[in-house]
Amino acid sequence: MFTFSVTAVHAAITRGRTDALMNGGFRNPHYGLAPGKDEKPGVWLVGDEGVYIMSNGKLAEGQRSLVVYAEECDPKTNPDYWHYKRQYFGGDDGIDYLDAEMLVRLIGAMPLATHLTITMTDDSMSITPIRR
Hints:
Helices cover 27% and strands 29% of the residues. The protein is α+β, with helices and mostly antiparallel strands.
């Protein structure tokens, strides 16, 4: 399970929208394999050196996306992040696109939620708002 604060999720979505406005749209969620298809607000859930969400607006030269690490899988705060990532995300690097509209609706359905949890299995992903 990976946990992200609702505030951080909103910040990543907002940053993606701002980057898109300033730099000509959103990056392709299909990794460039389907140009012009589904280029809309969202975040990427990325597993590589830790697990994090990343904004998806197009970027200016030298600019970087906003990156927010999962509480359990941040290399700066958890010395066992690699083992945690391997156990719950898998050993290989990976990326999944999460639609911003879906995330905002999910968070809005539970107004007292403070965090989102993302749970992955071999063939599914579930996203649940929680209150801490």
